[in-house]
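Q: I'm teaching a short session on how sequence maps to structure, and I want students to see two examples side by side rather than one. Could you give me a first protein with its sequence written out and its structure tokens following it? Keep the formatting plain so it prints cleanly on a handout.
A: Of course. Example one:
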Amino acid sequence: MQKLIPQPHDHEYASFMADPQGYFLSSLPSLFDSTKYMAVIDIISAHSHEEEYLGEIKDAYTRWPGEPDIIDAFYRFSVNIKKIKNEIHRRNVDPRLRNRCGAGVPPYELLIPTSEPGVTGRGVPNSITI
């Protein structure tokens, strides 16, 4: 909304009281502004097919040559990230957790570490675009 609901002492209060629905509709952004906003959000929210996610690096040996301690720590971290992914999946299918599964309840996917390309609502990339 582009305008707040006016208070009784505001000069727009009378027009708000006369036609609350019209006041509300006049406070919404234009169709062009809404479309532009949706396009920008879609572009910055989409995952590319070559994106690297938390705990994923294509070849750690070429990134950190001669650093076996760093490579070992990274692989331990990567294993822990995979355990988190499996735990989220396990909780999503557990019928005892009524906030996770049931009719009309979407599974929790926000912090699942990986994602398919596109806008998915899941995946934790190594870097962000916002």
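Q: Perfect. Now a second example for contrast.
A: Example two:
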Amino acid sequence: MGALSHLRILDLSRVLAGPWASQILADLGAEVIKVEHPDRGDDTRAWGPPWASTDRWTDERQSAYFAGANRNKQSVAVDIAHPQGQEIVKALASGCDVVIENFKVGGLSQYGLDYESLKVTNPAIIYCSITGFGQTGPYAHRPGYDFLIQGMGGLMSVTGHPDGEPGDGPLKVGVALTDILTGLYATVGIMAALAHRDKTGEGQQIDASLLDVQVACLANQAMNYLASGQQPPRLGNAHPNIVPYQDFRTSDGHIIITIGNEAQFARFCEGLGRPEWSTDDRFATNSARLAHRHELISLIQRVIATRTTSEWLDTLETRSVPCGPINDLAAVFADPHVQYRGMRVDFPDGDTSGVSVIASPLRLSASPVEYRSAPPRLGGETRGVLQRLLGFGEEQINNLIRDGIVRA
């Protein structure tokens, strides 16, 4: 029994930010009913190759992208554009604690599935709306996508090589980080709203905006700007406030060095065979190292280039200097620590071919994360949910299937 096994979530979201939030809740035990279009389902089901699995009965393929954000959920395929479909979703919402949706602002009101409509029959409902720009403001009705928001929200302005270096220019992060962070913030907001409801009995709407989240997550870079009025430069893999804190080229690859204090820097210098650097006025403090960044980095690079990555790791790790390799994904999942921590979960064969997913990073001692079910096939639980929660009979469901209102 997971920590949230007393909760039921109605997930009307697609793609990544909303499904990421509902997957976190599902991992923690909540019952998540994912409402999808009967014909195409969540858009990301078709975002392949690569394909994570194939339904053994229908040969329907499921993309790796979809599988990464939709385990532990029940797929109910309903056409919300049809009045009967709308009534089904309304009835499901009346028995749920939380609704998550990422339609355009006002997009669900035409179906009677907006917050104002649903709270009439379920005043305690927590209704989380995820959009690119929020429910209010001059951009509220614009569509918003992760790449777009990384650019508009400032992340790309501080990501990439400095001007004048090979490959210079702004870059997006290699995963849809803004979507992921918005899913995390949405989850925090949902948990806070549930705590408020526990105290007051009141539900509420949560307005989660990708742009808001991206601006908030600029963190120290945004604070550097607010404090100085200066645009933080792109520094490649270097850190704006700490030196040395970047990658260096070894004789056979790269190594990352992350020095966080003066004691670590002293041990690092000893490991390099240059103990005098730690007492040199140019380098003895982090402020001095920032002022002499280019000089110090050039000196370090000359030394690091003389040995292999593994040799430097052996030398520096014995001195408790924070360092590590730059792994590709094969190396990540082959890493003994990653394997020990169980960061890969393999679901056995069922109605679909077996699928492997990335584990949750949450570790709870009393109510651990559960991996109850693989990402669902489209409409795989429609019949069961309609029978169990709404009391529909076989003939009623078969008629809905015949009319194209649901898929089961």
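Q: What should students look for in example two?
A: Point them to this: The mean pLDDT is 95. Also worth mentioning: The chain has two domains: 8-216+340-407, 245-330.
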